[in-house]
Amino acid sequence: MSCIARLLEIALGQNGRADAVEFIRWRWKHGLSLTAAAEALGLSRRQVAYYASGEHVVPRTVLLACKGWEVERQAAE
């Protein structure tokens, strides 16, 4: 993780954006690019970029989809 990415995570956390922090951590944990995350969740790359930057609130349904994706991925292994 780059220093800039870590600073973004800290800034979002300090501004009460736990939704964005959770989304960012999910992407980083699985090494997903914006494009790969978008494909995994059935979203546009642009929408994923909005969520990852904290520009838009990450809906609970998207955060639940992230958890579901993780479970499916673990079951496939």
Provide a compact summary of the structure:
With 77 residues, the protein is mostly helical.
Summarize the structure in words:
- It is a single chain.
- The chain has one domain (3-76): 434 Repressor (Amino-terminal Domain) (Orthogonal Bundle), CATH 1.10.260.
- It is globular and about 35 Å long.
- The protein starts with a helix and ends with a helix.
- It is an all-alpha fold.
- It is 77% helix and 0% strand.
Number of helices: 5
Specify Rg, calculated over alpha carbons.
12 Å
Class by alpha and beta content: mainly alpha
How large a portion of the residues is in β-strands, by DSSP E? Answer: under 5%
Summarize the amount of helix as a percent range: over 70%
CATH architecture descriptor name? Orthogonal Bundle
How many domain modules? 1
Low-confidence stretches: none
The name of the CATH topology is: 434 Repressor (Amino-terminal Domain)
Helix and strand element order: HHHHH
What's the total count of β strands?
0
Q: Can you tell me the CATH class?
A: Mainly Alpha
CATH homologous superfamily - what is it? lambda repressor-like DNA-binding domains
